[in-house]
Amino acid sequence: MLSISPLGAHHARRRTLLQLSAAALLCHSSGAAWAQSTPVTSLQMHRAARFRALSQRIAKAYCQAFLNVQPEDAAMAMVSSRQLLRAGLQELGKQPWPDALARPLAQVRQFSEGLDTALPMPPTRQSVADAAVQADKMLQSADAVADGLQKIAPFSTDKLVSTAGQQRMLSQRLAKNYFLAAAGLESKDLREQRTADAAEFKRGLASLAASTVSNTTIRSEMTAGEMQWMFLEAALAREPDLRGLRAVASTSERLLGIMDNLALQYEVALKDLRS
Predict the structure, then answer these.
(1) Cα–Cα distance for residue pair 252/232, rounded to 1 Å
(2) Closest CA to 136 of 52, 256, 255, 49
(3) Is the CB of residue 132 less than 8 Å from the CB of residue 176?
(4) In contact, 183 and 66? CB cutoff 8 Å
(5) Chunked in runs of 10, what are the mean pLDDT values of the chain (275 residues)?
(6) How many CB atoms are closer than 10 A to CB 171?
(7) Spatial distance between the Cα atoms of 243 and 220, rounded to a whole number of angstroms
(8) Which pLDDT score, from 0 to 100, does residue 47 have?
């Protein structure tokens, strides 16, 4: 039986640590060189962050069409969301990315293509359920893309910008899950997610309202956002009926636009403060 002395074991551990340190240093150096040669742009960051809300908006609109609630608006939302999604994928597809980022980006593309195939078909309860599953998988991949870009970006996304961006997604997922309940597809998990998302949206609003970063446009958008949230929260508290469905459809779209504009306004305001 081969035995290793304590001194030999110590030298072996030391060699292993040195090898790991050298590998980590090489990985960091090559990553830094890659980031310098292929910088991440603000536009790419916005495109990737928007994938999250678009995934939920597409599924929401598809279920809305199935329920025949403002079907023309639902059709336009699906078209515009798919256009924005394709534009984002095209923008991010202009350059190569590290494997850790390329994999989730390819998944976002895969799930979006799957939705593109399914959405033109007349919606059924089963196709709505399938689209919701695809959208949630896309959301997970979109999270990984946005987080991966943030790690290699030469700038950091401020918490205010991130919070406003998260509010976009929450406005759409809350509406989507309300519509799924109306379609007879609600589950215990979806009910719990709706409760958690509503609480998180309120925390996000409070965080944005407490910020000292503000101007006339930001204050105006915040006032509008708080009002629309009151309408959406009241509608979400109703059992899914025609009145509630219409209110959720319209207010979720208004909130999406408000939070999208807030994210952009915070980024501009923060750049002005730093300059």
Answers:
(1) 7
(2) 52
(3) yes
(4) yes
(5) 41 44 39 53 85 97 97 96 94 90 95 87 93 95 91 77 94 98 94 97 96 93 97 94 96 97 89 74
(6) 31
(7) 28
(8) 86
